[in-house]
Design brief:
Length: 433
């Protein structure tokens, strides 16, 4: 991957300049903490040895290079940094947005001694992130400047804040170092290095090591983003976009429409059932829209967590069959970066444009009642029992009874077998009188 390697090497060549700039502004924060007595101490001979171990430093850079190509390798890089600094872990996060209402976390990785702690990630995000007094201040911090976590809380907050108490007791980060870096696509990166394992304050050598690593950590995130963007539309998705009879809408991590194929655009332009509401997907009928938004929220959860897919129907006017929508979240790795344009796919099946299956033909061919044949056609079009019940304004128990009768008539045990039987009529030649 020559382009990626050039990106990485370019970051290394710029290390001296970035480190020098970081050092100039970073010293102000460190001196502030020294003045306030928050535990920045002098260098020890052991720390000087660690800082001077260029072989160890190169091992860290190699691990960061591997993490740039595979995010799953970040915990190993984090563990090597812990070993070099004598610290108890770190947090690497990326997000964008200017206000609390607009802010979106793309990922947050908490690692302790080389092991990713998903339990702490969820604990922190669900219990303390919304109330953490430090978060709005973090968004305003200048880039490449080191800050002690303790300096980001007021004296009163350090006594009463539940978030700060959790940082101290659970996160081992009551005296952590925070640094803010410019992220890909206008996003921002937060790198937090947890407390020292020996409980001592920070030495100037440790802080210099952090500054030396900052451009490499930043470059790790940027290279990952470049790889994700370069592979954004893989072969499988491209084939899906060209598939006849299937509309595809791509959504980003906020649920905004980023792209759609021609068939999906036709559906959205018609505004009959499904529509584009200022860049967001919606349904015209309130009940359908409530179900659609619930489905999208499950597919696009906050904090970059893995979403879950599902399907729903959107009813249309007149005698038109409803649209069938299937929402498919994209895997976590791809959705972790703002430049990755696809966080979820919405597949639109317009049954009116599918190969026509006449319920009357199904009725005659398979010895079904009129109601059974209508249910069978909808099953063949991919609708669930619940969706058929809504579409026909019947109880689910009634639809299940019809399905049970049809399965018994043909000796089947699964709905999929019945659906395939009905689908076989779609391509059958019509008899001529």
């Amino acid at each position: 991957m020559p382009f990626v390697w050039k990106l990485y090497c370019r970051g290394r060549r710029r290390q001296g300049q970035a480190t020098a700039a970081a050092g100039m502004v970073g010293n102000e924060a460190v001196q502030s903490s020294q003045t306030k007595g928050h535990g920045v101490c002098g260098a020890s001979s052991r720390e000087a040895l660690v800082r001077g171990d260029m072989n160890g430093f190169e091992h860290i850079l190699a691990a960061l290079h591997e993490a740039a190509l595979d995010a799953a390798r970040w915990p190993r890089a984090s563990g090597l940094i812990d070993k070099a600094l004598g610290t108890r872990g770190s947090t690497l996060a990326c997000g964008d947005g200017e206000t609390a209402a607009d802010y979106r976390t793309h990922f947050m990785w908490i690692c302790h001694l080389g092991r990713r702690r998903r339990d702490l990630e969820h604990f922190w995000y669900e219990n303390h992130f919304p109330q953490d007094e430090r978060i709005p201040r973090l968004r305003r911090l200048p880039y490449y400047r080191l800050f002690h976590v303790v300096d980001l809380y007021t004296e009163e907050e350090r006594k009463a804040s539940e978030a700060y108490n959790a940082l101290q007791t659970v996160g081992h980060a009551g005296n952590a170092i925070d640094v803010r870096l410019d992220g890909p696509g206008g996003s921002r990166i937060l790198w937090e290095i947890n407390d020292r394992a020996d409980g001592e304050g920070w030495s100037s050598e440790q802080l210099d090591t952090i500054r030396s690593l900052m451009p490499h950590v930043r470059q790790t995130v940027h290279v990952q983003q470049t790889l994700a963007h370069g592979n954004a539309l893989g072969k499988t998705l491209a084939e899906m976009l060209d598939r006849t009879g299937l509309g595809i809408v791509q959504l980003d991590v906020r649920g905004r429409i980023t792209a759609a194929n021609d068939r999906a655009r036709d559906v959205l332009r018609s505004g009959d059932g499904l529509l584009d509401r200022e860049g967001f997907l919606g349904a015209r009928a309130r009940q359908d829209d409530d179900e659609l938004q619930t489905l999208l929220n499950r597919a696009l959860p906050p904090f970059g967590a893995q979403g879950s897919g599902g399907s729903t129907i959107v009813r249309r006017s007149g005698a038109l069959q409803p649209l069938i929508l299937r929402v498919c979240p994209v895997g976590r790795r791809e959705a972790s970066f703002p430049a990755w344009p696809v966080a979820a796919l919405v597949l639109i099946v317009d049954t009116a444009k599918e190969a026509a299956i006449d319920p009357a033909e199904v009725e005659a061919a398979f010895d079904l009642t009129r109601m059974e044949s209508r249910v069978a056609v909808m099953l063949a079009q991919g609708m669930s029992v619940g969706q058929i019940a809504v579409s026909m304004d019947r109880k689910e128990s009634t639809i299940r009874s019809h399905v049970k009768n049809m399965l018994a008539k043909h000796g089947y045990t699964r709905q999929a077998e019945l659906a395939r039987l009905v689908q076989s009529l779609a391509g059958a030649p019509k008899e001529r009188g």
